[in-house]
Amino acid sequence: MMHQKSVKLIVLCLMLTQWCLSPAATADSSFEDNDFAEFEDFDSDDDFVEIQQSNVGPQLSTPEEIPTLTEKGLKRDHSVLEDDDDDGIVEDEDEFFKDEEEFEGFDSPDKEDDDLDQKTEPKLTVAKIPMHFRTHWDSYWMEMLMLAGLMVYFINFFAGKAKNANLANRWFNTHRALLDDNFVLVGDDGKMDNEKSGLIKESESLYTLWCSGRTCCEGMLVELKMIKRQDVVSLMAGLMRPQQDQIHIKIDLTRGVMDTFVFFVGTKRTVTKVFKEYSDLSKYCTQVSKPEIRYNVPNGLSVLSEIPEATSAILENRVIITLTKYQQYIDYLHISDQFSGPVQQEDANTLKQPDTKPILWAGFNLPKEGNMEAVKPLLVLIFYLMERLKTYRMSKEGKQKAERNRLRVEEEFLKSTHAARAEAAAQRREEKRKQEKERVMAEDDPEKQRRWEMKEQKRQAKKKAPKMKRLAVKSL
């Protein structure tokens, strides 16, 4: 650093010398010819630096003038530079002017070019990609197909919904007078306030009607199960497996009104299905072989019977005529005093038989053309069967057979739950002994506690002792 400062001082001296010898300097009469006269008016080095920058600055404004001035000064005072070789080394002029500490704010041509390159925005080349989408309607066939499907779905939904509602209201209006003659309340279940009594819409394909206020029954529930016309998928499935609009009538009979028997008549497909699903039919009934010969039922209907006497009484002449005439609309008739719902899975912890109740169920198919007058006699048949069950009584032999069947079912249930009942009984005895022990230990009577402990030890010893069987030996 000391060598560089010496060189700088020499260069400045040379530059000042050249300026003093210039015509502008000689014209000025305020300075003398003395080479060092210009330093006499300055008292400090700081003032010298300010004058130097103000005088020299305009001549060093361009990079081309600086090397020329430097070369002249170096040639004139070459002897001085040779004497100061020991103190410093003069650097190359290109490297000298590239020194960032010497010339602050001075930008080299290469650096200016770099800055210009950085400030210049890059040229973006956009590739020419061909348009793959065509402008005609054939390009949107998938979208049009989806819109058409949605339109068909919504149109079918509203049309199917309206048709189901129309069929349900038509059935209700056709049978309204008959229902009013047999029940006090029609369309009121007593659980909610209905401003307008009538059908209750459970869904778009299910309507219900509750009727009450009649002898020998607690109430009647009518369910109108329509085809799901509002669902396109269900309609398409119905093409492979035909479906029909149905009405299900469920009547809860009063206990003691009917005798103890179970009976079922229906189509062969329905009989096969319900025989496995409902416990009262699977436990008490057997399928009758050739019912068309034995009970004169029309072909295509099967019979499940517990008591043949009761089956003959139900399938009397009037009922047989109705079944024959309206066979296409009849699905099933179910009469039972032991109805407990679908078959429950076997559970070892079940210690009590399910509750049973007497019922009269019926299922009918509604006409496809919507003529509800054609099925009106079937509702009359239901009311006739209700009166028939109220007045019919079996013979003594029939009642005994029904009682034996119920005892048999109860014994089978007890056998199946014997282990569970034994475990429950042992648990109850253990709980009872535990309570007795707590009661004795709570008393302040050591003698009583000792007697109870001795009694408990004897019981445990007797329980652990091997069981022996006594044999009676006859004396000779």
UniProtKB/TrEMBL annotation:
It is a single-pass type I membrane protein. This is PAT complex subunit CCDC47. One of its GO terms (biological process) is endoplasmic reticulum calcium ion homeostasis. Belongs to the CCDC47 family. GO terms for molecular function: calcium ion binding. Residues 72-81, 426-459 have a biased composition (Basic and acidic residues). Pfam families: CCDC47 (PF07946).
